[in-house]
């Protein structure tokens, strides 16, 4: 246990250090948004629970709270790196012991762990404020609780499984999908009162989605705002068609392509072989449970307006490629089946398995070959450029207490980069926002305003051109112009 914990801690720390030193932590726009939401709970004109939002599930924002108090940790992104790195350690421990339970072999567990945590896409996502690794920690704990409950029948593992379900359901919507399957698995493994176990787990685990729907209703009056509200995935995608929508074959093709890019061909092929071996050894329960997450993504791609774009398929771009991480966890866990099938006197050669799975990254060690990093890099070029330029402007010109009118979105990254407290800004989460953008020409306290061409604030200021005067326009290829305004002094009363 100590050796596993030490190794995981060292790997997580080295990965975080690497990505921090190269400035990659906030490349993903979602990573910047997650850490801003967490900071906004504490640092806002109206801080508190109402700043939690309705679309993104709350767990990552909550576990980042102890760290976003530091303006330096917030501005560098490390406030999100720290809790997510801890989640990698937790996920590694859970997968190690789950594999040991499933395959009855420490070597198999070590192979599973090595293949999982030495994947560079896993390490990148474990070093930035994103939800995939936080979810993976809950998934590993759920898997471990299932396998331990099957062996021991102890109610403790039933309770741990319910907690793991809450953790997953408050991190990603994948966790909601897993609830009936988790309840069925616990009931199937129970030696008595199977129907009671099923309903107990299903009802208890469903409290997490029920809370989030109640939260959405409280905040917006719509319990399904996360699903069909103005900031939902369906609203963002709109009526635009994408490959895989209402097409099962294309959904499988695109998700399979993302999985291969995340895992690499060697891990995919060895994982398939391992799954067959697990079936032969009658240890397929863990593999089948982990298979549910890729199934969920294929279904989402088909039915839920959640596209995945990969560079080798039309439209030859990058979007949501990180969903393939679920296939990494599945394939890595399946490797234990190979070890279980190898005769004991040949098992020393099993150490070659994680080397083979790492071959694509050893042959091409550059981040350019790490699809999750590459997606974040390609899609953030314009945003990083205007964020940096605008942050320099405010560092030079803004003084505390002058106030900034700005929407809470990508623009908030400017204030993060410039280390300007969010409480200096007036945004959608504050009560005065609607009144201010309705009549910006009236006297308000904000000296500055920041808008992107086409957004709601830009339109409001265009309707009242005498309220704020543009003082800088930042035009970056591939993004709407960012305009910085300064309030005109009020006209004298005649």
Topology diagram in text:
Elements: H1 2-21, H2 29-42, H3 59-63, H4 65-68, H5 71-76, H6 78-103, H7 106-117, H8 120-125, H9 132-152, H10 155-169, H11 174-189, H12 194-205, H13 207-220, H14 225-228, H15 233-237, H16 248-263, H17 265-280, H18 285-303, H19 325-341, H20 352-357, H21 359-363, H22 371-379, H23 381-397, E1 404-405, H24 412-418, E2 425-426, H25 433-438, E3 448-452, H26 456-463, E4 468-474, E5 482-487
Parallel strand pairs: 1-2, 1-3
Antiparallel strand pairs: 3-5, 4-5
What does this structure look like?
The protein has 2 domains: 2-378, no CATH class; 381-487, no CATH class. 62% of the residues lie in helices and 4% in strands. The protein is built from 26 helices and 5 strands. The chain has helices spanning 2-21, 29-42, 59-63, 65-68, 71-76, 78-103, 106-117, 120-125, 132-152, 155-169, 174-189, 194-205, 207-220, 225-228, 233-237, 248-263, 265-280, 285-303, 325-341, 352-357, 359-363, 371-379, 381-397, 412-418, 433-438, 456-463; strands at 404-405, 425-426, 448-452, 468-474, 482-487. The protein starts with a helix and ends in a 7-residue tail after the last strand.
